[in-house]
Amino acid sequence: MKLLKRLGLTLTGLVLSVAPTFATTTDPRTTADLLNLMDESGITVVLDGPRCNQGIDGAYQWTGIARRMVICTHGQPIDANDHNTVRHETIHALQHCKNSILERPSNTPLMEPRKVIEYAEDVLTPGQLASIRRQYPRDVWLIELEAFAGAEVLTAGELMELFNQLCVMEA
Question: DSSP class of residue 44?
C-alpha cells in the first residue's frame, strides 16, 4: 500500500512540476518537492478527492493530528492555478502548525492582522479582495487573505523553508 501511495504522490508531483507557474519560475524547488515535503511530514496529499465535487480548487483539513491537503484539478490538465492552490493550501498548513504550537484559534494568521490586510492589498487586485470577502465567512478573511496573497508571491522553495521552520520538529 505504501508503494502505491508513493507512486501516486510521485506521479502527482511530476505532473504538477511540469506545468507552468508564476511564483516558482526562479526557484529550482518545485511543486513536486513541496508535495513530497507535505507527505513526508504526515500530511496526506489527495488529488481530486470527494470534496472536489463542491467546486473548490483545494482544501487543507485537519482532525486531531490527522492532516490532509486536497488539490482539485477537476480532471483538467495541470495548470498554474493548481500550482497556486498547492502554495495556498501549504500556507494554511503553516498557519495550522503555528496556531497549534501557540495554542491559538485556527483562524489566526501568521502575520499581525493589520500587516495581512496591507500585504493582501499590495498583492491582490480589488476584484480578488472582494471575491474573498464574498466567498468566505468574515471570521476566516484574514487567513484566506494571507493564503491567497502568499500563494501569489512565495515560491515552493520559500514555503518549504517556512514549513521546515514552523512545522518540522527536531527530534
Answer: E
Q: 42 by DSSP, 3-state: which?
A: coil
Q: Using only C-alpha atoms, what is the Rg of the chain?
A: 15
Task: For residue 171, tell me if it sits in a domain.
Answer: no
Please give the residue that has the higher pLDDT: either 19 or 109. Answer: 109
Give the domain range for residue 50.
2-166
43/3: higher pLDDT: 43
CA atoms of 147 and 120, how far apart (whole Å):
9
For residues 14 and 139, give the distance between their C-alpha atoms in angstroms, rounded to a whole number.
Answer: 36
State yes or no: pLDDT of 4 exceeds 90.
no
Contact between 13 and 36 under an 8 Å Cβ cutoff? The reply is yes
Overall domain count for the chain:
1
Its pTM stands at 0.83
